[in-house]
Design brief:
The protein is an alpha+beta fold and 739 residues long. It is built from 27 helices and 26 strands. The chain starts with a strand and ends with a helix.
Length: 739
């Protein structure tokens, strides 16, 4: 078996992608095909003994689409779309035809030249012209419906197409009757039904595809996270080259503030490197000789030389891109309730319309009567109410969610949020603030805390170390003045800390080794309880700074990534809903468990890379639906792999665009709000489906004519009216979501 990823052109909606997927999976030699609408590609596993790529491409062409060859997942130029303008034009046409066809019924003034009683020919021809324009704008729906009917995979587009074409042909027939001076035929025109049906369906497709291009661009932008240029050293000389020119085994030089160009191994130098976009660890990691470096990570404070090991598609970043796309392709789509039903409903309605027509023809009825029955069944069963049942409720729920700071990007997330069994949280930037800050201070001096912080922050302001930056940020947040001119004789002691004079007083700031190196007695000062203060800070997940002034220990400071203010309360509310909570992080296990215990999260999975995160999500999904909440690039695969991906508003672009839901205000409590909105949405959808089916159960038998012996009949005009009543009922019920 072989696998190929083909670029597909011509897909505009989920009906296109699902139709192509069903068609491909029916072909001999194809074991499994998964079509990705977002990425416009198809992942196809096939038997190379039976098929080759050109043959597979012919299948794609036969299905009505075009293969653009193997998808290399390269950055594409943004294409302009005119779908928005088509929808605006269609909206104008819908308003015009409704005014002309029904304006008189509600007492609206109308030009005499278009009056149905005085000028029926003008009245019908004008509507026909409007209808032709509307069909041109909605031709993709009709084309897709036709293709799916030919390929024996009828969907909602198929029924819409049949209803539209039947209504159009019947209206054209009655327009011809008007020319023959049959005045009654003016009441049998259904051009407005054609336009309105296409208008409603077009709105749904537009809303469905709005975020498609953004998601696609975000995934492709991930490839751009590595620098364009790098410095390569050959024969003792350094030369700037492009990324494509770097080969395996080349020696690459990286200076402070620059990004690592390719995956490799350090052969010279010591530095701290920020790998948060891969590992999720908030503290930059110390790197020295023989340590591995990852393309796209940021070099903080040292010059290093490393040997290139993985380049191009072999790099970690490329692997993440591949996994994100693969996860998107293999993720089982949760079909909309209406789509599931339509799999049976559409063929059944077509069959009923045909059988009813044949029976009446056999019973000796005229052809005009038989055509009337056929069109009446299709029009009365036209899935406006059924098609609107889910999307209208979703649209209203999305509006309600947005007012609460929640951006809903997929209907599946609304449908399934209330069924979630497990919510998985990333640590850094999701449960925590994502940057280091002072969490606790043990003060052993006569000075107050503010004075100690002022001295330390001024000294640390001369350092680029992540802990130093966290302390300076903490001081600035409390409006403590930073004036580095008061700092003298600043000295960085690599691997230990720093020494300097502030206001002419000598300070030593660093780890325990630095204290011992300077013969500073710390044991007596820090041990007042059974557990030493430094051990207490370490057990709580802190990095520890010992502060000495004039060779005397004056303070201990714990520095760590601070938990968000309402995180504990959010976890409590989630657990009250009987939903399991899990922390999934690339950070070390000790730090992760300390934070999890504080929050009340019982299960912790720590020290995992992006690929392993996705694997853990897959395992958790065996016990029910999983929601993943994260903010970093390293979360992007997991966000796609989960049943519902939720990203916080201050997250990276790739995390936001890989997710189904975005918490715009970075408030984790919106997760509970999302679940409540989901419950309400599902209730509304079920009610809508009940009314849609109740209407069909009542009206379809009448449309077939089986109640004619009882004097109960229906024509296409009555069918269109009853269809409208059904749609209005569903619409009004959906509007209740605003409250």
């Amino acid at each position: 078996m072989k696998k190929v990823l083909l670029k597909i052109d011509g897909m505009t909606c989920s009906a296109c992608s699902s139709g192509l997927e069903k068609f491909l999976n029916k072909q001999d030699g194809i074991k499994q095909a998964s079509v990705n609408l977002v990425m416009n590609n198809a992942s196809i596993e096939y038997d190379e003994k039976i098929l080759d790529i050109p043959q597979i491409e012919k299948f794609v062409e036969k299905a009505g689409f075009e293969s653009l060859g193997i998808d290399k997942l390269e950055k594409e130029e943004k294409k302009k779309t005119n779908e928005k303008y088509k929808l605006i034009f269609l909206t104008i046409l819908a308003i015009i035809i409704l005014y002309v066809s029904m304006g008189q019924m509600v007492g609206l003034p109308i030009f005499k030249i278009l009056d149905m009683h005085h000028n029926p020919i003008n009245f019908s021809i004008f509507q026909l012209i409007i209808c032709i324009f509307a069909i041109f704008l909605g031709r993709d729906i009709i084309k897709n419906g036709y293709k799916n009917l030919i390929h024996k995979t009828p969907n909602m587009d198929t029924l819409v197409s049949l209803g539209v074409i039947s209504s159009l042909l019947y209206s054209i027939y009655n327009t011809y009757q008007i020319f023959l001076e049959n005045k009654e035929a003016v009441h049998n025109l259904y051009y407005e039904s054609v336009v309105i049906i296409l208008f409603f369906i077009k709105i749904g497709k537009y809303v469905e595809g709005r975020n498609k291009d953004k998601t696609k661009e975000a995934i492709q932008d991930l490839m751009m996270i590595t620098p364009n240029l790098a410095i390569v050293e050959k024969d003792g000389k350094q030369k700037e080259v492009t990324l494509d020119e770097i080969k395996k085994g080349d020696i690459v030089v990286c200076k402070p503030g620059e990004k690592i160009a390719v995956d490799g191994e350090i052969i010279e130098g010591i530095t701290h490197i920020d790998e948060a976009f891969i590992t999720g660890e908030s503290v930059p990691v110390k790197k020295t000789i023989k340590d591995k470096v990852i393309a796209g990570s940021i070099n903080y404070d040292g010059i290093v030389k490393y040997r290139a090991e993985k380049i191009g598609k072999e790099s970690t970043v490329s692997e993440i891109v591949r996994l994100v796309v693969e996860a998107t392709n293999t993720k089982a789509p949760i079909a909309k309730i209406a789509d599931k039903i339509s799999g049976y409903f559409v063929p059944a309605i077509i069959l009923i319309a045909i059988l009813a027509s044949i029976i009446w023809l056999v019973l000796g009825k005229e052809v005009s009567f038989v055509i009337n029955i056929f069109i009446t069944v299709l029009v009365v069963a036209c899935p406006c109410s059924l098609g609107l049942a889910t999307p209208l409720a979703i649209v209203m729920a999305s509006g309600l969610a947005s007012r609460n700071g929640i951006l809903i990007k997929s209907s599946e997330s609304l449908e399934n949020a209330n069924k979630v069994k497990t919510i998985v949280f990333d640590k850094t930037g999701t449960l925590t603030k994502g940057h280091l800050s002072i969490s606790k201070i043990y003060n052993y001096s006569n000075s107050n805390e503010e004075e100690i912080i002022e001295a330390i922050a001024n000294i640390e302001n001369n350092s680029e170390h992540p802990i130093a930056r966290g302390i300076v940020r903490y001081a600035k947040e409390r409006n403590i003045k930073i004036d580095s001119t008061k700092v003298k004789e600043f000295k960085s002691v690599s691997g230990y800390g720093i020494e300097a004079k502030y206001n002419e007083e000598k300070y030593i700031i660093g780890n325990k080794k630095l204290m011992l190196k300077n013969n500073i007695n710390i044991e007596k000062t820090i041990k007042e309880n059974e557990i030493n203060d430094d051990e207490s800070l370490e057990n709580d997940g802190n990095s520890i700074l010992f502060i000495a002034k004039e060779n005397e220990l004056i303070a201990l400071i714990g520095v760590k990534d601070i938990i968000k203010e309402n995180a504990k309360e959010v976890i409590k509310k989630i657990k009250e809903k009987h939903i399991n909570t899990v922390m999934l992080t690339g950070d070390n296990e000790k730090t992760a468990k300390a934070i999890a215990n504080n929050l009340g999260i019982e299960k912790v999975i720590a020290g995992v890379v992006p690929k392993q995160k996705a694997e853990e999500i897959t395992k958790l999904k065996q016990n029910g639906l999983v929601m993943m909440c994260g903010d970093g690039i390293n979360d992007s695969i997991s966000l796609v792999k989960a049943d519902i991906g939720v990203s916080v508003g201050n997250g990276t672009d790739i995390a936001i665009d890989s997710s189904d839901v975005v918490l715009m205000k970075d408030n984790l409590d919106r997760i509970n709000t999302l679940i409540e909105i989901s419950k309400k949405t599902m209730k509304i959808i079920k009610q809508n489906l009940f009314w849609a089916f109740f209407y069909n159960i009542c009206m379809i038998p009448i449309a077939t004519g089986i109640l004619i012996p009882l004097g109960i009949t229906m024509n296409p005009m009555m069918a269109a009216f009853s269809m409208t009543i059904s749609s209005v009922t569903v619409t009004l019920n959906s509007l209740r979501m605003r409250k």
